[in-house]
Each structure stands twice: as structure tokens, then as C-alpha cells.
Amino acid sequence: MNIGFIGLGLMGRPMAINIARGGHTLHIWARRAAALEPFAQLGAHAHVSAAEVAKHADLLFMCVADAPDVEEVC
Fold first, then answer.
1. Cα(24)–Cα(21) distance, rounded to whole angstroms?
2. Residue 71: its pLDDT value, please?
């Protein structure tokens, strides 16, 4: 399954890692490029925008801090 994950901070990172380790194809985006780096070794596909993640995902998770972050992503 193609799973998209937006928000790879304190909470999102461990969840996304478990999804990748579970054998799913993971598509990711984060505002900070450094947050994407650990996922390269897991075979995750990093994208340049949240919209690109959504285009590739059958299921999309979003783990962001507050309402302004949600509005930025949507």
C-alpha cells in the first residue's frame, strides 16, 4: 500500500518509521529537509510538497502541531 505521511517531528517520525518498517511504500514530506534524511535508508520517497505526497498515497497521515500548521498543509 502507498502510504503518505506529512509531519515528521517528535510524534510523526516514529510513526512513519514503523510504517516503513512494516513493508509499506512510504511517501513523505516535512517542512524541514533534515527531517527527511533518516528515511532514505528505509526506502521512503521524499516529495517536494504535501500535495505531491497526497498524489502518490492511497492513505494519508498528517501529524502536525496545531491549526496554523494544518492550514499550511491543506
1. 7
2. 61
Q: For cell 517528535, what's the residue?
A: 10
Per-residue model confidence (pLDDT) at position 32: 87
Domains (range + CATH), the chain:
2-73 (3.40.50.720)
Name the nearest CA neighbour of 44 among 15, 69, 73: 15
CA 29 to chain centre: 5
Residue 64 carries which side chain, given as an amino acid letter?
Answer: V
Return all residues near 67 (Cβ < 8 A) that are at least 6 apart: none
- pTM of the entire structure? 0.87
